[in-house]
What does this fold into?
Amino acid sequence: MKRLLLASGIVLSLLSQRALPAVQTATAPAKTGSAKVANKSSRHPTGALPDSAREAYLLAWGVDQLSVKLAESGQLVRFSYRVIDVKKAQPLHDRASEPALLDEKEHAALQVPTMEKVGPLRQSQPPEYGKSYWMAFSNKGSIVKAGHRVSIVIGAIRLDGLIVQP
It folds into this structure.
């Protein structure tokens, strides 16, 4: 009986050690125990949107390949997307709308900065099929961090559940 218990304990130990690296590589690396928290708060530990959300954004707003990444040592957050339906994606390119990146966990709303000689850090030319576009949000003080779940709001468009990648 002792041998059976010892053998089952070794097998369980080996199985848990094999499963552990897969979980660690699927989440953003963290210096503290925040990777565990990120896994518990998200049903999608890889940081990807579920297929249903991708399809919904494609049908509603004509965009896919949505991504939110930290840039410039975390001082900017870059949102990018690819246009699939030019008519539906038109509101994303409206110069009158002011985009915002919302991080509800941190109670933060980031804005697109306007540079003196360049203008707003966003592309606002008319959308074209198959082209990728981007906009950058000021993250002064590095409020938004990798692994945070954010929303992008541009006029009537709201894209929820995007996870910030490093």
User: Anything to note?
Assistant: The longest helix spans residues 2-26.
